[in-house]
xanthine dehydrogenase (Mesorhabditis belari), 1312 residues
Amino acid sequence: MVKESDQLDLREENGVKDLIFFVNGQKRVIKSGTIDSRMTLAVYLRDHLRLTGTKIGCNEGGCGACTVMISDQHPLRKELRHYSVNACLMPICAVFGKAITTVEGISTERALHPVQERLAKCHGSQCGYCTPGFVMAMYSLLRNHPKPSIEQIDDTIQGNLCRCTGYRPILEAFYSFAEKLKLTDLTDCAKYDPTQELLFPSELKINNLHQQSFVYESNQHFWFQPTTLHHLLALKRKYPNARIVSGNSEVGVEQKWRFVESKRRINPKQIPELNQVELLSDSISIGAALSLSEVTYELKLLKAKLAASQCGVIDLFLEMMPYFAGKHIRNVATIAGNIITASPISDLNPIWMATGAKLVLQSESSGVRVVDLDENFFVGYRRTTINQEEIVKAILLPLSKQNEHLAVYKQAQRRDDDIAIVTGAFKVKIDPVTKRIENISIAYGGMAPVTKFAKITCETLQKKKFERSVLDFGMEKLREEFALSAEVPGGMPRYRQALALSFFFKFYLKTMSELENKVEEKQLHSESLKATQLYQEVPKDQNETDAVGKPMVHQSGFKHTTGKAIYTTDVIVPDCLHGVLVLAPITFGTLHELDPSEALKLPGVVQFYSASDLPDKKLGFVNDTPVFVSEEISYYCQPVGMILAEDHETARRAANLVKVRCTEKPNPILTIEEALSANAFMGPQFKVLSQMSEGKEEHEEIDWSKYDRVVKGECRTGAQEHFYLETQNCIAIPLEDDEIEMVVSTQGVSDIQSDVSKILGIPKHKIFSKVRRVGGAFGGKEAASSLCAVPAAFAAMKLRRPVRFYLERYDDMAITGTRHPFRFDYEAAISKDNKLLDLKVHSYSNGGFSEDLSLAVATRAIVSMDSVYKIKNADLYAQVLRTNLASSTAFRGFGAPQGMFCMETVLKHLAEKFDLDVDQFREDNMYKEGEMTPCGMILYKCNARRTWTECKEFSKYEQKKEEVKLFNSQNEFKKRGVYMVSTKFGIGMGEKPFLNQAGCLILVYCDGSVLISHAGMEMGQGLHIKILQIASRCLNIPIEMIHIQETSSDKVPNTTPTVASLGSDLNGEAVKDACSQLLSRLKPYMDSNPTGKWVDWVVSAYFDRVLLSATGMGRNKCDPINFETGKGGKHFAYCVYGTACCVAEVDCLTGDHRLLSTDIVMDIGDSINPAIDIGQIEGAFTQGYGLFTMEEIKVRPNGMRLTRGPGVYKIPSADDAPCAFNVSLLRDSGNPYAIFASKAVGEPPLFLGSAAFFAIREAVRAYRIQNGRTDYFSFDAPATPERIRMACEDVITEKIPQLPPDNTYTPWTVTL
């Protein structure tokens, strides 16, 4: 409780009590107490101002979807500032006296902003959910730099993630402002004119609100914004427990996810004394309120005035900044906040400790004191010596001196916007004559619960001569001083120890190079993006109204860039309740009781429901997924109930108050090995036996003894999070007569309809399920959408009020499933002429706790395992294992990428074991036209060899091999690898042939306009624009006359989910069918009036009472496989082929890598829209690149999911895009089995991302061979920095103790 005296003190505080700010030029005044002071700017913009262009993708500042621009006046210089921020972290109270610009505020009805126009025309949006954030990041840069450099553009979008595009088109659009990378014709785009931008509100200037203190109170939560140091110190004395908030990246996340309440928060950003930078005699004083971006700017200015020898610490800071969080975080976060947070993996604290930085502290009672940021400052995990009443006034960065050598190294899962695994900072002063060490300082982050100074090592190295013996002795001392146990929190003990030694080794090499004036090996190669796109132009005689084959902009492209595209999260429904799931706190055990009493006391909470309130029915294709747990808890964060409240945040807080009483059982089954030991199989064993497909009556077991050239092995692929930018969400609206409207972000409106019908007992004709667009899905919104939709529907019908469910990223990643982890046990034999004779593979996939789609994924994996290679005999087996994890589910590729990865690994194993040229070996075994696959499918129009040959030429593969060989001979610790990978992806759902269908409804109006409803969901793949193009050809009318609004079960019944890359094939055929019917009805009028126009014929038909609507049907033919006997057939309608060539560079001392180039040749028939298709190819490749190299799901041995947001789970960023990204569409490869000779494109290119994996492996292999290790080595996916470094075996890794035997210790995480 807040004391009355505190409230009195608050009333006596000087300052403005109302929250005053501007949004898009409009003044906003929020009276004290009228909104929750804990609210974020994003929530206010979306829920209160209905400015839904600002998206919320993660609520932790890690994805950038919420980016907006803030304009204010500098508290010291009063100059105007523009900077981007994460609105999801920015407290609403922190915008007092500022002006906010959102994506809606930079354009008018008549004209788009150049950023918006160029991004749309460059095809830089697909699902579009991330797009407003990218627009505002770039817009903020232009406001400061109208003619930006490439480096500035790269810097400004750090912190913005896209899951769809692969970043190439986004970079193309933005680089056009630097007049670089022009693939798209932008000559008709408006030039950027900075004089036309929104002006800073004069009222803010006149009233000098930035100089006025501000205090806001709501529900006993207080926000203080003092403008003097005296005021700040008085507040801290009065409220010593008050949290000081600048960037809110720590306090905000604590409040959001851990429900840590901060009753009082103080924002010091407007205090002039804390915004000063001062050059002192031996140091630089940096005010504690300066943002990291401001410090960067100020230090660059100072560096120009100082001698180079004085700038060592400045250089370390500037070197670290591009890799510290994202740009929008750096624009508000401070050095002081980073220090006080006392994170053991801080990027900066090792720098301060190693270089002797100091903190200036001040309190009202004790005055000023200066403390060293040394080994005594951090006294425990996230604890320092700072007293509660003290504030940080300044940081003193020492000026470096002559003969000092400094370096800092950081290794993370991803280069930019990622927390460190280990950071090492080094400083040594060496006598230039004797070469002896006068002083040395070494500090590490990530090696202890605190930032740790290498005290013992430094003491023993003092006065030693800086030579090779120092390296050997220093590494041995560091190995002893920084030994980590196998059970160390954070895991990766051997890797972290290897990094500590490798960083010291790097520092030694750098220092020796400086002493000897040699050129050190450069950092990983990096240059700005280069790209080409080759595709077949439409014929010159093609009808002008025929849009097929033209590279048209996504149907919603301009709506994406302006924030006008409406997603389910943006739909406004009056009187809507908000639902939040209550989750199980354990992985495996028994639920005894749920006590919502405390939650129900919270103002605004309406109701609580659990399994006792629901009918005893289950979700899932085999009814094995409870809506809520009734007794047995099967995985961590499994839903056990739900809270309904008047707003989302109240519902979240209430859900946290529900007491879940349960008993945890020991030894949950998490891994494939644990499930195998427990015989925890799900479903039968599946078989694909090539002998049976060839007509044999009985299968003959392989006699492996007859072969001389055999390999046996095992390989694995990991789980992958979908990371769609729009999380699972829905709205349920009760209507009359037991009707209900379901607006759901889903891939299958009919599946939602079916699940709601099943659980609620309402017939389907009273359930209207619909969606306009989906903010990304990738398979993750096929089965999992019902986990939200069904509870929402139940609550809506019970309470007779609309209910919205929206999963926070933090919960979405825990509740919904991932791509299936696989383990493959293989045995393979080849002939003396290197032909594949026999292959036997046992495939095991981790299915999670329920069946979901796991059986179909398992069969798809073995059906696709042959990839592009002919095997004389193949025995392929698949089994799914049941574990205590969220159900693994559909994901782009649906098991095929995992199966093909096994095949490529087998071939690599054979090539290395028997010293074969792996390229020639694979080429010799590629399919030829008319050959049969192990599942019995005859391959017609087989373009596997064509894409391989053309990619070789397109990528200049042979030249690249020579260049890589030369580079590797010249570089000892950096290596490159180049590799080509091909893919064959079957199109169709042979597992369930009845799903290969789609319907449509076309309505023609008397003005000639056409409305199409079809069965497909627009998820960013460009389905709607392709359907419009198909209809324009079929009806021979301009595409502008045709419209698609939404997908709805009351327009097209019994729809198949939009999956398996079949959207355009099936729905396109359905539209063609319906158009054909319409044209046949209009033909008499066209014949009788041949000079008439479309609208004339339509009106004539109307007056003759001719039906001007039609339904159409699309289908393809696929045969099922008998997985019991192993006999197959034409399992797919056709196959898509492609080949990619990648060059990667690896830092063998750290495990870091960079993708230098990617060249792709893809066979997609006659493209309906080459711009859309190339975007799909680039996006799928990048998602596959993430799967095989960096994306890693981390789960504790007790089943607790650690990767629950972008802070820990890393998808590729723009910085990870290949430096050269070239795509060519195979010419003259028309496909007779699909609409207008096209081919599906969504999933087939994903496996090509593995080319990056194998290129990395080639680089690792080069390093191993250099070190005398020529044997074959197992290398599983993903190729994380840890796996790369530990595979680069050398004298350093030899120094690291091996882990003890399994089952003798508890690791931090388990391999699923």
In short: Residues 54 and 66 are 5 Å apart (CA to CA). Confidence is low (pLDDT under 50) at residues 1-12. DSSP finds 37 helices and 47 strands in the chain.
